[in-house]
Amino acid sequence: MTDAPVIETERLVLRGHRQADFAAYAEFYASDRAEFVGGPVGPAQAWRFFAGQAGHWVLMGFGWWMIEAEGRPIGMAGLHRPPHYPELEIGWTVFAGGEGHGYAQEAASAALAWGWRHVRPESLVSYIEPGNNRSVRLAERLGASRDDAATKPAGEPDLLVYRHAKPEQAAA
How far apart are CA 144 and CA 63, in angstroms? Predict the structure, then answer.
C-alpha cells in the first residue's frame, strides 16, 4: 500500500498527509504542545517528521493519518514501527484547540481497529513519555494496560509502555 486509506468516523476523517497540512503541523511542532513527541522543533525538523510519517505508508504499508474535522487538520493518529521499536506502536496527538472534544479517542479507536484488522500484528503498544498524563488516560480508555516488563525502544529507556489487548482478548 502506498497511500493511506481514508477512514471516516462520526465526526472525523482520517486521511493521508497533504502538503497543505504542513502549516498546521509545523505550528504544532514549534509549540510547547509537542514536548512529548520530540518537540518543540523548527520547520526543517518538523518537515522531516512530516515526510517520515507520510513515507511510512510507502515503506511499511501502514502509518499515521492526518485527523481532519470540519475540513481542517486537527491532529494525527496512526501506527508506526521505526527500526528501533521492538513492537508496533499506535500513537495520537491533537493540535491546539483539538483537546477536550474526544477527537483523539475517536481517531485512535478507528486507527486501532484498522490496525488489528489489516496489519494483524502480534502485539500493539503505545510508548508514552512519563508525565504525558493525557496520553496515559487515553491509552487506558482504549483498554490498554501498563506493561513494565515490555522491551522499550532502543535509546528510550524511560518510556512507559501501554499494551493494547487484541480484540478477541478484550471481548473475553
Answer: 20
pLDDT over 60 (residue 1): no
Cα–Cα distance, 50 to 47 (Å, whole number): 5
DSSP letter string, 22-38 = HHHHHHHHHSGGGGGGT
Confidence at 99, pLDDT banded by 50, 70, 90: confident
Q: Note if the bond before 82 is cis, omega within 30 degrees.
A: no
Task: Give the DSSP per-residue string, 78-93.
Answer: EEE--TT-SS-EEEEE
Q: What pLDDT digit, counting tens, does each position of 21-43 carry?
A: 999 999 999 999 999 999 999 99
Contact 14, 21 (CB under 8 A): no
* DSSP summary character for residue 61: S
Q: What is this structure's pTM?
A: 0.94
Rounded Cα–Cα distance for residues 45 and 100 (Å): 28
**Strand arrangement, sheet containing 7-8:** 7-8, 13-15, 64-69, 72-80, 89-94, 124-128, 160-164, 145-146
Cα 44 from Cα 9, distance rounded (Å): 32
Amino acid at 99: E
